[in-house]
Amino acid sequence: MKKLQLIFLLIVLICSCNQVQEKYTAYVNPFIDTHKSRWFFFSSASRPFGMVNLSPDTWTKGSWNSGYLYDSTEVRCFSHIHAWQMAGIPVMPTSGEFEGFKGMEATKSSFDHASEIAKPGYHQINLDRYGIKAELTSTQRVGFHQYTFPAGQEAYISFHTGEFLAHGKVDSSMVRKVGESKIEGFSLMGGTRRRPKSTYVYFAAELDHYIEEFGGWEDGELLDANETINGKNNGAFVKLDIEGKPVKMKVAISYTSLENAWKNMEEELPHWDFDQVVMDSEKEWEEKLSRIKVKGGKKEEKVKFYTDLWHALLGRRVVSDVNGDYCDMTGESPRIRKVPLDDQGKPVFPQYNFDALWGSQWTLNVLWSMAYPEIMDGFCSSMVNMYHDGGLIPRGPSGGNYTYVMIGDPATSFFATAYNKGIRGYDIDKAYEGLMKNAFVAGIRDRAGYEHDLNPTGGGMKYYESRGYVPEGVAGNGGHKDGASMTLEYAYQDWCLAQLSKVLGKEEDYEMLMQRSQNYRNLWNPASKAIHPKDMEGNWIPDFTLIGEGFNTLGFCESNSAIYSHFVPHDMQGLIELFGGNEAYTEMLNGYFEKARGNKFITDHGKHAESWVDYENQPSCQMAHLFSHAGKPWLSQYWVREVKETTFGDTSPYGGYNGDEDQGQMGALGVLMAMGIFQVDGGAAVQSEYEITSPIFDKVSIDLNNDYYPGDKFEIITEANDWDEDVYIQSAKLNGEEWNSFHFPHELFAIGGKLEIKLSPQPNKTWGIK
């Protein structure tokens, strides 16, 4: 009897072990493709969209090739902000003789990857020069440091608040001691070409040790003892009596005031339990990542999938305080605004800043609207706030500024996708008003890249309105004055805005915008069978080529005609007819992919004119999915798999994103490709539909947010899924019924259900063509 009981207990124990919840954070590898980081790319000790994004910086100058670079194994500081055109509050612990006044370059320390740990919400790194173990974590707005100093040596922490960091110089900085273990201050980040106005970053810091000495420096020289350091090219330090104990330090930031920096700390981190914050951060990341659960596939595929998903929830930043305050820099001077509060006085949503949504119709718009609708809602609300504040729906706001990064009005597709999928927690009337303003002369479309002039003309909207296209040679001081790209993107954005007009009952607007959405045809040249730019006189530009050399060919933004000739996501049937029908179109497009295969479907950043297909940059992100629209979905299934593996499959520090991971866009694309879900039109249609390719996992389960969607979850089940062979869809069932279309409606997704897909090594050329 006892023997049977032991066997029973053993079985129970084994079953219990098998039922231990899988941790999705364990699959995230922050080091993927970090050999060539951008400043906002790497944020290890960060919460989702964290205002604080704390991590080691191995290089501190430049927006590109800066921040954490895997092969640059010297830490210069730990800074708290890694964002679009924003940086701030670098600190560095040192031991022994104090040299912080000489600058970050003088006090840098080597480290070894072998002893380094990085995971969502936590980073550990050993500073070999000083014998210091540094551990980092954070809440949304507070960085939490834990330093273990070597015994018997003096311990210092330097605040390099006035030193050049990332995007530009610091205009001035101030640090002062305000208690036995507290300091506070600010850095005034100098303006940049993209973020033209200087922006304050306030900070409040508290240590769990008594400050034995406080001091500072300016222009590389130590200052006389003082309680306040204020000026340029300056910084401050604290000397600590460590008493053989680890030093803990909390650093809260705010873009509005010192008072709010302290409030952020008091609200989010009133205790000193470092391990608890690490666990809390992991729990928050686990909740976000587990919204999409995958089973099957190789371990490397799961690692890349959850790292991609992590990136999609990481790069863009909250900029409002715990009380809802945020800084509006759209006017002549900073103004403190507040987001709406609920009945308990809590912010209804956080205010966000972000790089442009250029290209996000094929990445973030689709992913967020499926699994994170509340985030999409908050971004819409933030943009409506900026319209109230400054009179324009933004294109890539930073530090409360308009930056006018890139071209067009990509917010239009973002709003259309959100609203037409039922994400509507913002003032749609104000949003529509602002989007309509942007679609005409003097709106945001009229501003070419970074065109901050009072009367902008670089976007060429007067020509678009009068001629139906933007010619080359438009006057204006902005960048990216590429008329063909502008024409194509404006036409798509007109269609997106028309979808909003339709559902809002604005029929006259709808008819006008739908007519304008056909403007892409005005640059179609039947002779060259391509989108061909025109000059100011209305003539085709001479010496036209499909691809070229360097950054872009004339007329095309970071791209060429070979790629932008397929940028008609709203009217693929019309475009395919211009190319001569399905057979002619797919033969030509398939040839592009064959030509691009040798270069892994990418080109080096800055050489976008040189590739037939370029998955390193946004304008090409839909190309593998276009075969489905030309009656050959099996070719989309093949090329999507090929691009996913070849271009985005690497999980080493030397590949995986290919240099231009714009705040999670390529991560989001990788997630969609892995799930076998896409939307060529960005999901903006009144009747939004998802397109199906072959998933790489046996099962994908997407949790649905019941504040937006009535269903529990939507599952994608795959039968016979061998990565090396089973690429093609043989058959499919949706909620138990045979499904012979390559797309299905969002309405069925929203109520929850099951898509079952059977794969095979051989294409079924009859499936999905209805």
TrEMBL record:
PROSITE patterns: PROKAR_LIPOPROTEIN. It comes from Echinicola arenosa. This is GH92 family glycosyl hydrolase. Residues 1-20 form the signal peptide. One of its GO terms (molecular function) is hydrolase activity, acting on glycosyl bonds. Residues 27-254 form the Glycosyl hydrolase family 92 N-terminal domain. Monomer. It is an enzyme of class 3 (hydrolase). Its cofactor is Ca(2+). Keywords: Calcium, Glycosidase, Hydrolase, Signal. The lineage of its organism: Bacteria, Pseudomonadati, Bacteroidota, Cytophagia, Cytophagales. The keyword Hydrolase applies. Its EC number is 3.2.1.-. Gene3D superfamilies: 2.70.98.10, alpha-1,2-mannosidase (1.20.1050.60), alpha-1,2-mannosidases domains (1.20.1610.10), GH92 mannosidase domain (3.30.2080.10). The keyword Calcium applies. InterPro entries: 6-hairpin_glycosidase_sf, GH-type_carb-bd, GH92_a_mannosidase_put, GH92_N, Glyco_hydro_92, PNGase.
